[in-house]
Amino acid sequence: MKAKIIVNLKEIVLDPQGETILHSLNEMGYDEIKKVRQGKIFFIEIDESDEEKGRKKLEEIAHKVLSNPVIETYTIEIEK
Amino acid sequence: MKAKIIVNLKEIVLDPQGETILHSLNEMGYDEIKKVRQGKIFFIEIDESDEEKGRKKLEEIAHKVLSNPVIETYTIEIEK
Q1: Are B32 and A46 in contact, with CB atoms under 8 Å apart?
Q2: Which domains does chain B have, with CATH numbers?
Q3: Partner-chain contact A30 B61, CB within 8 Å
Q4: How far apart are the CA of A43 and the nearest CA of chain B, in angstroms?
Q5: Number of other residues whose CB lies within 10 A of the CB of residue A28
Q6: Going by C-beta distance under 8 Å and a sequence separation of 6 or more, which residues neighbour residue B16?
Q7: What helix, strand, coil percent values describe chain A, rounded to 5?
Q8: Are A32 and B48 inside 8 Å of each other by CB?
Q9: What chain B residue is nearest to A30 in terms of C-alpha separation?
Q10: Is A4 in contact with A44 (CB distance < 8 Å)?
Q11: What is the pLDDT of residue A54?
């Protein structure tokens, strides 16, 4: 089974990297870009045929290992 | 208009960060995890109502600014 775990900063947390990219783009003439936020994406292969069990494991991993729940949120997308 | 640009390493390029996470997970007992690759995701707001034009701008930005086309590929997802 393949899955994606997307980790992004909570909306209330500042994202200096995204801000820097936004300003660079605006300076380059891309004035139509109004907001940039950067996140992480993990492409994962898991040896588990039961989707429910797989999702549970991925939830654990996302929460414990891949994200910092204080400042980040995550979403899990299972590929069929 | 909102969009996501996902930048990931080409399959032939080594991903030491992903490898490290994979080994850590396996050591922690998550033996069912077989592969981890890490990428970047950018959440973008663009002031452009024409989807075709917006996508063209985002293609330019993804190619010129957000990715290194030698080692990375990107995909653009427009949110309706």
Answers
A1: yes
A2: 2-79 (3.30.1280.10)
A3: yes
A4: 5
A5: 13
A6: none
A7: 35, 40, 30
A8: yes
A9: B57
A10: yes
A11: 95
Burial A60-76 (b: 16+ CB within 10 A, else e): ebbeeebbeeeebebeb
When pLDDT is cut at 50, 70 and 90, the band that residue B50 belongs to is very high
Coil, strand or helix at B79: strand
How is residue A22 written in tokens?
């936004």
With helix as H, strand as E and coil as C, how does A22-49 read? HHHHHHCCCCCEEEEEEEEEEEEEECCC
> Which chain A residues have a beta carbon less than 8 Å from that of B65?
21, 24-25, 28
Give per-residue pLDDT as tens, B13-48. Answer: 999 999 999 999 999 999 999 999 999 999 999 999
Best A7, A27, A45, A52 member to test B by mutation, with max B CBs in 10 Å, is A45
What kind and span of H or E run contains B8?
strand B2-9
Confidence of residue A30 (pLDDT cuts 50, 70, 90): very high
Instruction: Determine the average pLDDT of the residues in A18-44.
Output: 97
CB contacts < 8 A (A, B): 94
